[in-house]
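Sequence and fold
=================
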Amino acid sequence: MRERTDVAAEGAERAAGWCHWHKGPSGTAVLVHVIEQNSGPGAALYACAPCREQRGLTPLSDQPDEAAYRAYLAHTQVCADCNAAERCDAGMRLRAAYRMALQS
């Protein structure tokens, strides 16, 4: 029978994360890139803090297109004038900012 400390250590090891750049476990790994595919599952790539710094990688949550999308989505969820067919002026500006961020 395993001791409780073994189970806790295994759980901590699994929760640590994985860095796809140095190909090893990491406690600081965050999502930096998503590979999307037309069919089948895509892939999520994570990088630890040292690899992000060395390679100039930006966490997905800090990338301009992701931040612009979150602002657009947050607005459309609470705006009574935004619906599936049309957007209010603020919604249109946020959508335009998101599309511009995607192109850069």
